[in-house]
Sequence to fold (229 residues):
Amino acid sequence: METDRPDQTESPIITKRKYVQAEIGFNREKLTNGTSWITPTSLLKYGISKKIEVRVITEFENFKNTITTDNKVINGLQPVQIGGKVALFEEKGLLPLTSLIFHTGIPLLSSPNFKTSNPSLNFRFTMQHTLSETVSLGYNVGAEWDGENKKPNWIYTIAPGKNFGEKWYGYIELFGEIGNGKSPEHGYDAGIAYYVSDDLKLDLSAGKGLSRYAFDNYIAIGFSFRLPI
Fold:
């Protein structure tokens, strides 16, 4: 079972046909203006064919603003994102395994605190090279629109990963975003995952911001599983 958790780099591999796959996480992120808890974040995927999967992302956020005197807390559902993944190229020589992921955030499917004026769009090309039997290199490039600003954030990730035996996986990663009239935000993270079985996976990750306006740090735990339908 291949998952998009726990790193920021999404996998180009399509969910197995006629399987539902759930990837659930619990994140704590410290920002310059407060602390955000995502409890939980959920990615549900269904494999339609060998080349197409449909995707639904939900995130329940609790944000505490720590730079105001009242320590205001905002919580609720972020706009539900509906989208898919399409396989584009098989790995061949220097050509990486490549897929396209895209989502639309629906303002009506959100709490009032997080409702956007317009649908929020995002896409990314997900790519992966096999470097050896146990080592791979994944990377993404794409763009995100927040539903308020017409200018996109351009995003990138790069994550070498390694399998340790049949049960363990580890990675390190560099990622960030540039654009939308904001200062660049860059960060790094690392994580591990344990395969309980072919259909159940546990993960733990943590990261730290590198640039002035990036997040301060985050930690996340999660699990993923799949079921035939």
